[in-house]
Amino acid sequence: MTLLHTLSYAGAAAAFIFVTLSLASGLLWLSELIEEHSRTAKIVGQRGIYIIILLHVLLYYFDSLPLRHTLFSVACHLVYLQNITASWPFISLSSLTFIASCILVVIDHFVWFFHFAHLTQQARQKARSMYHTPGSIKVAGFADIATFFGICVWLAPLFLFLSLSANDNALPTNLGGNTVPSTPTIAALQPTTQPRPYDLEEAEQIQRRES
Question: Where are the domains of the chain?
């Protein structure tokens, strides 16, 4: 079984590379789709953030999520929503809204990470005690937590990240609102070079010879 065990590592590495390349290709396709259909993508992004906010409220009532964490996530998504302006998908990387979004997505991730980690640790401690049995402890599984992070924490920032690819193909006329003339003016077409001194001397010598 030594050779088969070695081949299993090679197969796992090949599967990891395949999944990574497939994910990269899918994200590239989504970014091009957002760039080509920016108006439709803007509507989808806005409504998607509203749906995520509604999901936070529903999870608070049905799954008893903490109110403070839920309100913080709702506030984060309201900040994400401020990036979808009239000039979208053109987002200024130096704007206060974008910088705040980058900071909030990291904080929101760790807020929920520590929350679920605390619940899991607390459930393990209760399961080890003599007054509780493991079957009576209800803890969210890995699939539930991963789904929550994928939809309620990462989906909106990922959408904004994919929309940044449109900034690479943006023209300078579209970013600042100032129009730049597309055709050269008459003054630009006129030659700015002046005749050199030795050219004038040669012209005078030719005139003297002809006279």
Answer: 9-165
